[in-house]
Structure formats: C-alpha cells, structure tokens
C-alpha cells in the first residue's frame, strides 16, 4: 500500500460516520509542517498568517508552539475580533477603509495595544483620523515596502502591485509624516516578497520555465535584501525604537530569515500545504487540510460524479486555481465540465472501484479559502477524529 493509499484508508475510517461534503485537518501533518516552518525560520519567530488558517482553534494550537509569535490578519474587523478573543499581537497586513472599525480601535485601550494597522500613504492617516469619533488612543502603524523587482529602469516589474513605497527615501518620508501626526506611532515595517514566496520554482513538465523562475527569484532576493536593509536603516533614523521588521512567506522562509534586517517571518499556507505549494524546491510539506465529496452517480465506465466541487481559489483564473482530486489517486476532471457548482464528474480507471456514497478527497488550490466553504473542520489524529472545531464561517464571520 502506498503512503497516499494508507492516508486515504485512515481518513475514510476517521470520517466513516460523517456525511460528505466534509473538511478535515490531519493534525500529525499540521504539526510536522509547523515544525518545518520553525526549522526554516532559523530562530526568528514565525508570525501566523490568519488568512491561510481561518480557524481560531488552529491559530491557538500553532501559537502555543515554540517558534511562533503573533498573527498577521487580513481585515480590520477580523483583527478586532481576534484581539477581543485574547490574541494580543495582531498585525493587519492590508490597508483598510473600515471607518467603524477604526472608531472602535481608537476608543479601546486593549484593542489599540493589540492591533497594528498597515499604511503606505498619509491619506490613510486622514481616513483613520476622520473615523476616530472622539477616540484618542494611539494607533500603532506598520509601513509596507513594495518588494517588486524592477528592471530596465522600471519598465519591467516582477511582483505584486501592493505598496507605492519602493525606495528607502519614500518609506522614511512616510515614517516622518506619521511621526509628525499626533495619535499615531510607527512600530514596524512589512515587506511581502510574493514573487519569491508565492511562486513555485519547480513546475512539472516545464523545466525551462522553472529555471527562469529560479534565476528571477535569486536576483529578486539579492536586490530586496540590500534594499530592505537600506529601508530599515532609513526608518530607524526616524523611529529608533522600531519594534519589528516582517518579511517572507511560506516559500521563502529560510531565505528571508537569513537577512539581518528582518526580525520575524510571516507564514501560514505552509501549515495546510495546499496544491499551489507542490512546485517548490525550497521545502516539501505534508498536505494537512483536505475536503471530501461524496460519489452520487456512476454515469458510465471510468466515470463517477461527486456532489459539489466548484471551489476555485482567488487569483488569475486558470486550471491551477481549482481543487485537485487527491485520494484515491488517478482521478481527473472532465475537461469539458471541470469543477461544478453542484456536481463534478471525475474520470479515470480508478473510478470503477468507487461506489455510491464513497468519499473522494480533494486538496484546495490555496490554504484558508477552503474554510469559506465549510462551517467546521474535523481534526484527525491517526485514524480517528479527536475534535471538531468551527472555522471563521462556522463562528458566523465571513470577513471578505
């Protein structure tokens, strides 16, 4: 029996009494992935990206482990909810226009001490001030650096379009704008190198593209390490007591941790290891989060139909944004139908071994987005479900 076949047998036994669709997290794999992130962090703490987890119980589990500290959140409403729930170090990774949230933050000393908001433009300070509604608490601010690699005088850009702050002078100027503004304090710098951390460099069947990606990423790491260090020096001239410099992502943990200017690493997808992280040379994780759909039809030889399945991930549309049939091995989509909203036909000789009511296990393309489809996660240890915990959705929250 292959390792994957053994996993399928375990998962089927563990969830035998549960009707699909159902989502689960293999805690042995989750914990092993957490240990690997810490190892690659080389002594620098890992800040957990909540967007990639979206389950309070699992956030608590990983933050209880040595080597992890703090949360990187994705909306202000989520940040405040987490802070009210007892998480005392929440870095909001994206600028917000949530006026009600800012009013709540500025009026509550506990929330203001626990939550750090992201800015890259003084106009965002104007919005926060206009939203205070009399709240006078000092708002903790992090400045985001654009990590994109710019070539040919800026005519070629490689990297996500995030912050407009690219140079040390630009970041330092915004730091000075914050320092001049009552009611705000710069406490950190964030720089997410998505073109390094979030792009696979070993794509099966595409050796030339994979080599080109590796060359690009090596150049991007060198350029960013030098520029990030210069940014930190420039900002420390304005804010000598800067608390943290955050960088990285699951795919670049060890590379970013090697930079002296970085004090902590952000990662989250590496806990669940979705399918988009299969194409990396920098690490190999264990798939930990899966969902199962039930076989409801057998339309013909070599075909079964499962209920549901149309759970595409965010990003540029493409086949790589779809969940992948994982267990049993050997199933694939019908190219004329793909993953359907209500039903999904799956092809392959192994389909003839499946009976009505059997489970087909899938891996989502991305990590936390799976939890937007399920109210609960069943936590599996060995071949048993040892706990069932709510996702954000299960607690009544869909923050985006």
Walk me through what this model shows.
The chain has 400 residues and is an alpha/beta fold. Helices cover 32% and strands 24% of the residues. The protein has twelve helices and 19 strands. The strands form three sheets. Strands 1, 12, 13, 14, 15, 16, 17, 18 and 19 form a nine-stranded mixed beta sheet that branches. An eight-stranded parallel barrel has the order 2-3-4-5-6-9-10-11, surrounded by five helices. Strands 7-8 form a two-stranded antiparallel sheet. β2, α3 and β3 form a beta-alpha-beta unit. α5 packs across α7 and α8 runs parallel beside α10. The protein is globular, with a radius of gyration of 22 Å. The two termini are 42 Å apart. The mean pLDDT is 94.
Computed over alpha carbons, the radius of gyration is: 22 Å
Number of helices: 12
Oligomer: single chain
Which regions contain 5 or more consecutive residues with pLDDT less than 50? Answer: none
Termini gap: 42 Å
Let me know the number of strands: 19
């Amino acid at each position: 029996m292959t390792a994957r076949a053994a996993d399928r047998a375990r998962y089927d036994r563990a969830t035998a009494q549960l009707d699909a669709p159902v989502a689960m997290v293999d805690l042995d794999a989750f914990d092993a992935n957490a240990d690997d992130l810490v190892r690659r962090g080389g002594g620098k703490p890992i800040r957990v990206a909540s967007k990639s987890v979206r389950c309070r119980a699992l956030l608590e589990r990983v933050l209880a482990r040595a080597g992890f500290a703090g949360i990187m959140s994705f909306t202000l409403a989520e940040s405040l909810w987490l802070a009210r729930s007892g998480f005392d170090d929440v870095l909001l990774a994206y600028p917000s226009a949530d006026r009600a949230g800012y009013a709540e933050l500025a009026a509550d000393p506990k929330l203001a001490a626990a939550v750090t908001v992201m800015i890259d433009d003084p106009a965002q300070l104007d919005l926060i001030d206009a939203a205070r509604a009399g709240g006078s608490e000092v708002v903790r601010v992090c400045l985001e650096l654009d990590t994109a690699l710019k070539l040919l005088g800026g005519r070629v850009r490689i990297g996500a379009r995030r912050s407009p702050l690219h140079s040390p002078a630009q970041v330092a100027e915004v730091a000075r704008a914050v320092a001049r503004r009552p009611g705000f304090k710069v406490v950190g710098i964030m720089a997410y190198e998505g073109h390094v951390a979030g792009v696979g460099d070993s794509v099966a069947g595409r050796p030339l593209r994979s080599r080109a990606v590796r060359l690009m990423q090596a150049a991007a790491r060198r350029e960013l390490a030098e520029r990030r260090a210069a940014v930190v020096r420039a900002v420390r001239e304005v804010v000598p007591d800067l608390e943290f410099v955050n960088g990285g992502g699951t795919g670049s943990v060890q590379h970013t941790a090697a930079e002296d200017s970085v004090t902590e690493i952000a990662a989250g997808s590496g806990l669940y290891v979705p399918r988009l992280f299969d194409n990396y040379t920098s690490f190999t994780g264990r798939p930990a989060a899966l969902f199962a759909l039930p076989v409801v039809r057998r339309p013909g030889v070599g075909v079964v139909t499962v209920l549901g399945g149309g759970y595409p991930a965010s990003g540029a549309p493409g086949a790589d944004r779809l969940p992948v049939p994982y267990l049993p091995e050997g199933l694939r989509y019908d190219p004329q139908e793909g993953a359907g909203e209500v039903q999904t036909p799956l092809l392959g000789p192994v389909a003839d071994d499946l009976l009505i009511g059997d489970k087909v296990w899938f891996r989502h393309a991305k990590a936390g987005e799976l939890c937007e489809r399920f109210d609960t996660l069943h936590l599996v240890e060995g071949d048993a479900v040892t706990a069932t915990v709510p996702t954000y959705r299960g607690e009544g929250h869909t923050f985006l």
